[in-house]
Design a protein that fits this description.
heterodimer, A: 477 residues, mainly alpha, Serine Threonine Protein Phosphatase 5, Tetratricopeptide repeat, two-stranded antiparallel sheet, 7% strand, B: mainly beta, Immunoglobulin-like, 22-stranded antiparallel barrel
Chain lengths: 477, 979
């Protein structure tokens, strides 16, 4: 009996000891990665970089639903291309009505999501210096891409939040965040300081992307996966766009020329295929959207449900000549309504259009327009400007012209409106040329936006104002 | 009681030969119905001579002359009878008070009189007949300090339970649930049969909750299930049938004529008559008033069958039960089917005692989406579709002709499925060993698991609104599975000693809790054929857009604890309870994983004092105070402290994205509570009650510290706040009439609680959407811009500036002010029970007051931008012409959601339950050879007094987003037969 007792007591004691095992409270995740123990080889940074590309598809940026798509749909809705359609759920009405407030979810979404991409880009460079000597070419490839993505997002932020785009403007720019540090409380630099950082990043990236361990773009891929990544050409295209905004015309001409020479315009027969992701002719970078991901321009026209939130104004439709191939691609008639057809579907899904297509964020068409505008702004280069403009018109089977002087500048803006429809440009094109928005069709009380209005720039989100004592609100908010 | 039984069993095991002087035989019966009691221990007082009664209640024993026999039996009052003559019959009375006064804390069982903590107790039999699948909802209105809010009437839905105020802002606020010693996930109660429950003990103060250490901060609900008795086997069959209906909505929408008038004649930015209705259209459409409610809802039925058996002998006791419960939801297609089984066994063998509790429940639940504002959700779509559009066309097909393209809710409701299947098993085995030679020393170990297997299947038909967002737009089938196993292992050494006036007990415990969760899921597309499940998925190819999506995850976590629980009692007058516990959790940051908790309570039974002996006022008077702490770590996921990267992909290539910020200082929230209470009974125990006051401070409160969102994340969870909950609880019970046949009891309880924010780590306030935490103000206060009505000159909405005086027509979020509170100031319940012979009528009311609800569902139907959908009738008062005095602004005025225009008072009083039952007298049922028969009728939620513009003001989250599936009105009938 006594031995039984001892045995049982021993069992209980053993139970105590067994349970004391520290393993109970030290558990490592199995389905996520602990960042502390990762990023030990340069190859592991590739994973984080892929994440940065994925983040570009956030709701607040390009493709989105319920008040997202602030750098794509909102840039056209806030301008003069659309009026309230019959199925408008009201999600981007604030953009149309220019009545955004600091607590507007869409405004906050744009700010937060752009900085979220920047966060992931910064994480793809965090500590990568450790491999700068041992794996220099790999580092060039990864860091070069991350820097361009980071620069692009800062440039997008600048477009909505700065009141002035001039290269040397002392107006408020946007905080340029170049490292991952959650405790930072950045102040707003000037526009000039923002450009300085942008330029530094892009120039550094350009050097890095010129000398990488391997090709960045897939060399064997089909149109579906081609031009999916940032390479030096993308860097040049962004530089060209940035210099046009900054009014640095020679640089804009220089970089647009590099891209134009590397990637010519698509022929009229190939051009329609671009929009079905069946060709990447003249595409410099397309952000890839796959089945099941957000539809592009859904805020304007939801292809899958045939919901027409925003209808095109007649003044816009009338700009396309009868033979202009863009007219038939960008606009289609569906159930006896004219709807946006530019982002209908990939060719593979044409039977069941769902609006899920790649976002062609940089195309050669824009490069021609950048160069044409830069020439036109310079004195005595009207011929070159017109040549570029007509080259683009010819490629699209549109009528060419003989404009000069102010008429030429107007013609270039008109061509931008036609060519770059729903690619995130219209509102900013009007803004950077300091004009007035004049809507003429079904605009209710929201017809005119004068240059002095506060609505040309978004307010800094209320959450940021609350969190960051160094933040300064935009004028008028 | 338990110990005396064990002792008497011991006595019977030892054969003892006495000098027989006299043989006495007799029968022991239950005083209630004179049925024989088997297993009653009978022994001669002052000796170890004893026996037990047989199946027929009979016994035979040798007794010395003038001996006294002691009869004892669990659950009955012990009785001593002097022997006279050779035969006797003894009736034992049920020890009702003794049973009720036991406090079960999960680790210990103590007499309520000696317990110094705050524990509310609800007996299962009081509440388990209500036609509600999820058992935590049954407790509504029953206990002071326990706020139970159920937002949904969907079958099987879980309620939010808050004990003594929310002690956390971001962390979990739901109590810990312990079923027969095993931690159980509260949200799964749909798969447990409430009729199996014996008691609910709700632990509220710190001396009670500190026993649970890091899991106890939100209170603990300790559930014990029924166990077998040493008695004749009783078979019971229960049947219930019920019908339910929807309450009426106070948010009235336009009828067809009103809506057409609004479209045609009300000026707005889109112009007049945007659909271009002709007079002929108007004439025909205005006559239609489509019955959308009729198309969506039905009178739903509930059915329940329960079969149980309980019994046993002196060594082995059992309780087994099985049940089938089916409940149709009020929204067509929604329903719950539940099947449960339970076996509880106890066996005593010498010094060993083994117990096993097992239950298996399987529930199948067809649901519909709720509490969102998605247009394809049927509970939204039926309110947003036009009143002049009928649900069906004359040929019986769905009418898809809404001019505003508002989706018809019916295809989504009828063609899509949302099926949840849950298999739930809770099992525990315990072994107790009385260590010989050391009197009072015993060891106990219990190991159990809470196993949950959830299978969720969603089919989206290609002819529905929801299909519009499905890739390929050809239907989809989605299946998700979750398997969670939580094991709890508790091992203890317990010692009890009584020495003179001192009684003392201590237990030393070790506990290990591990939880592992595995999830898997996939979504397939292209369900174009007749097969509407996984088999119908079209395989994905690079060209057909049907690439399936798959995913999975797994988490594991553990808690390791050592603790001790002690109690001391001096002459049944002064009582002390002591608890100390050390917990470690895998969730928290390295170096911050362990923390200590403790509690101490003192009690003083004043009526046991000598100086109270003469007084006649108090039958019971007891004071108690306690202080202690418990913790909470229910924040984020299992690896919240780590910097985590989760999987993602771009362009067909896998990658990683940051999914969680590193929190290397993350530790527990600690809630310290001081409690003082008084318990009393006067008028010969007819009026009894208690008052308790408490003050609890949560330290290291989890709050979102705002970060500049320029770093990519706008906030991080940090232990940075401090808040206080302070409250009073009162409960009273009064036996108005206490007679042989007629009994009338009225009872009620009232609780008030106030949560106040004390510290925010240097900040004055933290804003989170429409709520704010500001120092010195109520936690989670409503934070909105104050609406000031409509400017009669131009129809603009007017708002108060932050100063509260000047008004402006410019909405500025910086003008937001504290406009109310989402948490009720007070709540409780009251009721009465009247019984006359076999007839019993009982009622229960519950109430909440002093809180606000943000009515987003109303905002969505008052927003003139949605003119192409159905709108609230109130919008007809819209400002149209200068000089109009109204409360609805012009449609040209910017519509703003975050204003007090949509904030409403939520106060309500609900007629929660009425039960009319009749137990047929023995004289009748005796002829039918059954031992009991009870029939009853019951009404649930028959009426609610409130002013909320919606179905029901019971909203647990503070805001009603939309798609409300409110608590139902129900009438049920039932019968219970005992064999």
């Amino acid at each position: 009996m006594k031995s039984t007792v001892k045995y049982i007591i021993a069992l209980f004691v053993a139970g105590f000891l067994f349970s004391s095992c520290k393993k109970v409270v030290d558990v490592d995740p199995s389905h996520t990665i602990d960042g502390d123990g990762f990023f030990n080889t340069v190859d592991e940074y590739d994973f984080a970089l892929t994440g940065a590309y994925q983040r570009l598809k956030r709701n607040g940026l390009y493709g989105g639903v319920n008040g997202g798509s602030m750098f794509l749909s909102a840039a056209d809705i806030a301008a003069d291309n659309f009026y309230n359609g019959p199925n408008n759920l009201g999600n981007l009405n604030t953009a149309f009505r220019w009545n955004y407030t600091a607590d507007n979810a869409s405004v906050q979404g744009a700010w937060d999501d752009a900085y979220l991409v920047i966060q992931q880009a910064n994480l793809s460079m965090r500590g990568i210096d450790r491999f700068a000597t041992t794996d220099a070419l790999k580092v060039n490839r990864i860091e070069g891409q991350a820097r361009v993505i980071r620069a692009l997002m800062h440039f997008e932020l600048l477009r909505w939040w700065a009141t002035d785009y001039d290269r040397n403007s002392t107006a408020l720019g946007v905080p340029y965040v170049d490292k991952f540090d959650i405790e930072q409380m950045p102040a707003r630099p000037t526009v000039k300081q923002t450009y300085d950082k942008l330029e530094t990043d892009l120039k550094a990236a350009r050097t890095m992307l010129s000398n990488t361990d391997r090709s960045i773009q897939s060399t064997t891929s089909t149109a579906g996966t081609a031009r999916a990544y940032v390479d030096r050409m993308v860097c040049d295209a962004l530089l060209a766009r940035m210099y046009l905004y900054a009014n640095e015309l020679d640089s804009a001409i220089k970089y647009s020329t590099i891209v134009i020479n590397a990637r010519p315009l698509a022929s009229a027969s190939v051009f329609p295929l671009i929009w079905e992701d069946a060709s990447t002719a003249e595409v410099i970078w397309s952000i890839k959207y796959q089945s099941g991901e957000p539809a592009l321009a859904r805020e304007v026209y939801q292809t899958s449900g045939d919901q027409l939130s925003w209808a095109p104004v007649d003044a816009l439709l009338g700009l396309y000549d009868a033979g202009d191939i863009r007219g038939d691609i960008y606009w289609v008639s569906r159930n006896s309504r004219i709807v946006l057809g530019k982002y209908f579907a990939k060719s593979t899904a044409s039977g069941n259009p769902d609006g899920v297509v790649d976002f062609k964020i940089f195309r050669t068409g824009e490069m021609y327009l950048i160069r044409s505008e830069a020439y036109a702004r310079k004195t005595g280069m009207g011929t070159q400007a017109l040549a570029d403009l007509n080259a683009l018109r010819t490629a699209r089977n549109a009528a060419t012209g003989n404009e000069t002087g102010a008429a030429l500048l107007t013609a270039i803006q008109t061509e931008r409106r036609k060519e770059l429809l729903m690619e995130g440009h219209r509102f900013f094109d009007i803004k950077r040329t300091t004009r007035t928005i004049n809507r003429t069709q079904d605009c209710s009380t929201f017809c005119t936006l004068l240059p002095a209005n506060r609505a040309w720039a978004f307010p800094v989100p209320q959450t940021e104002m609350l969190a960051n004592p160094n933040m300064v609100q935009n004028p008028g908010y | 009681m338990k110990r005396s039984l064990l002792f008497s069993l011991l006595v019977t095991l030892i054969s003892f030969v006495a000098f027989a002087q006299q043989d006495v035989s007799g029968v022991v019966t239950d005083a209630r119905d004179n049925s024989p009691l088997s297993g009653v221990s009978v022994f001669v007082k002052g000796t170890r001579t004893g026996t037990t009664t047989g199946q027929d209640g009979r016994f035979r024993i040798s007794v010395p002359a003038n001996g006294v026999l002691v009869f004892s039996f669990t659950g009955f009052t012990e009785k001593e009878v002097a022997v006279s003559g050779s035969s006797m019959s003894v009736a034992l009375a049920v020890a009702q008070t003794a049973l009720q006064e036991v406090v079960v804390t999960g680790y210990t069982t103590q007499n309520k009189k000696q317990y110094t903590g705050s524990v509310a107790k609800v007996s299962g039999s009081e509440v388990n007949l209500q036609p509600i699948a999820s058992l935590e909802q049954l407790l509504q209105g029953k206990s002071p300090g326990v706020l139970i809010q159920s937002q949904s009437g969907q079958p099987g839905s879980a309620a939010a339970v808050t004990i003594r105020g929310k002690g956390s802002v971001l962390g979990g606020t739901q109590p810990l649930y312990i079923v027969d010693g095993i931690q159980v996930t509260g949200a799964d109660f749909q798969s447990i049969n409430p009729a199996d429950i014996e008691t609910y003990n709700i632990l509220k103060d710190a001396v009670a909750t500190s026993q649970y250490g890091s899991r106890g901060a939100n209170g603990v609900i300790v559930v014990t299930t029924k166990r077998g008795k040493n008695a004749k086997t009783v078979l019971n069959y229960d049947y219930q049938y019920g019908v339910q209906q929807f309450p009426e909505s106070k948010l009235v929408l336009m009828n067809s004529k009103e809506k057409l008038d609004y479209e045609i004649y009300y000026n707005r930015p889109e112009g007049l008559n945007p659909f271009g209705w002709s007079q002929a259209d108007y004439d025909s459409l205005s006559k239609i008033n489509a019955d959308w409610e009729g198309a969506m809802f039905r009178h739903a039925k509930t059915n329940q069958h329960i079969l149980s058996a309980t019994g046993g002998n002196d060594k082995t006791r059992f309780f087994i039960s099985g049940s089938i419960f089916t409940q149709d939801g009020l929204v067509r297609t929604t329903n719950l089917k539940r099947y449960t089984g339970r076996v509880n066994l106890d066996h005593t063998a010498g010094n060993f005692k083994v117990g096993i509790s097992t239950t298996v429940g399987y529930s199948k639940f067809s649901g519909t989406d709720e509490n969102d504002n998605v247009i394809s959700t049927p509970l939204n779509a039926y309110r947003w579709t036009m009143p002049y559009i009928t649900p069906y066309l004359p040929d019986g097909s769905y009418n898809l002709g809404d001019p505003g393209d508002n989706p018809n809710p019916l295809p989504d409701l009828f063609l899509n499925t949302n099926l949840n299947k849950q298999l739930k098993a809770i099992g525990a085995i315990s072994l107790e060993y009385k260590i010989p030679y050391v009197k009072g020393l015993s060891a106990r170990t219990q190991w159990g698991i809470d196993f949950t297997d959830n299978q969720n299947e969603n089919y989206t038909d290609l002819n529905t609104q929801a299909n519009n967002v499905v890739p390929g737009r050809s239907g989809s089938f989605n299946a998700n599975s979750l398997r969670r196993i939580r094991s709890t292992g508790t091992t203890s050494l317990n010692y009890e000693k009584k020495a003179g006036d001192h009684t003392f007990g201590i237990g030393v415990f070790n506990e290990v809790i591990k939880r592992s969760t595995v999830t898997n899921g996939y979504t397939g597309f292209g369900l174009v054929g007749p097969i509407k499940n996984a088999a119908g998925i079209t395989p994905g190819t690079p060209t057909n857009n049907f690439i399936p999506r798959v995913g999975g995850g797994a988490t594991e976590e553990g808690i390791l604890s050592w603790f001790a629980i002690a109690n001391y009692d001096y002459r049944n007058k002064y009582f002390v309870n002591l608890t100390g516990r050390r917990d470690g959790s895998s969730r928290l940051a390295e170096g911050k994983k362990y923390v200590n908790y403790g509690g101490v309570g003192f009690g003083w039974a004043i009526t046991s004092e000598g100086f109270m002996a003469g007084q006649k006022i108090f039958d019971n008077l007891k004071l108690k105070v306690s202080y202690g702490s418990a913790g909470n770590a229910e924040i984020g996921d299992s690896y919240e402290a780590l910097e985590q990267f989760g999987p993602t992909s771009y362009n067909g290539i896998g990658g990683l994205i940051l999914t969680n910020l590193k929190k290397d200082q993350l530790t527990w929230e600690t809630r310290s509570t001081a409690n003082a209470g008084i318990e009393f009974a006067i008028l010969k125990n007819r009026l009894s009650g208690g008052v308790e006051v408490y003050n609890s401070i949560t330290d290291g409160l989890y709050l979102n510290r705002l970060l500049s969102s320029t770093n990519g994340t706008g906030s991080i969870v940090t232990n940075l706040g401090k808040m206080r909950n302070r409250g009073i609880e009162v409960s009273l019970s009064f036996d108005l009439v206490k007679g042989k046949d007629l009994n009338i009891n009225i009872n009620g309880n009232w609780s008030t609680n106030k949560s106040v924010m004390l510290e925010l780590d240097g900040n004055d306030e933290i804003v989170n959407g429409i709520s704010i935490n500001r120092i010195g103000e109520r936690a989670n206060s409503v934070y909105l811009v104050k609406y000031a009505g409509v400017d009669p000159d131009n129809g603009d909405a007017l708002y108060y500036k932050a100063d509260g005086k000047t008004t402006t027509n410019i909405y500025d979020p910086a003008d937001a002010v504290i406009a109310g509170s989402f948490d009720p100031k007070g709540f409780g319940g009251f009721g009465a029970t009247v019984s006359y012979k076999g007839l019993e009528v009982s009622t229960l009311f519950n109430y909440q007051y002093g809180f606000d609800i943000y009515n987003n569902a109303r905002a969505d139907v008052e927003n003139p931008q949605y003119w192409f959908s159905e709108l609230s009738r109130d919008v007809l008062r819209e400002w149209q012409h200068p000089g109009d005095i109204t409360d609805i602004p012009s449609p040209f005025s910017d519509f703003q959601y975050a204003t007090t225009r949509f904030l409403e008072k939520g106060d309500f009083l609900r007629f929660r339950n009425i039960m009319i039952g009749y137990s047929l007298p023995k004289s009748i049922i005796g002829k039918w050879k059954i031992s009991s028969l009870k029939v009853f009728a019951q009404g649930q939620n028959l009426y609610t007094w409130h002013n909320f513009k919606g179905y029901d003001p019971e909203v647990s989250t503070g805001a009603l987003t939309g798609a409300h599936y409110p608590a139902l009105k129900a009438i049920t009938f039932g019968a219970s037969i005992g064999l």
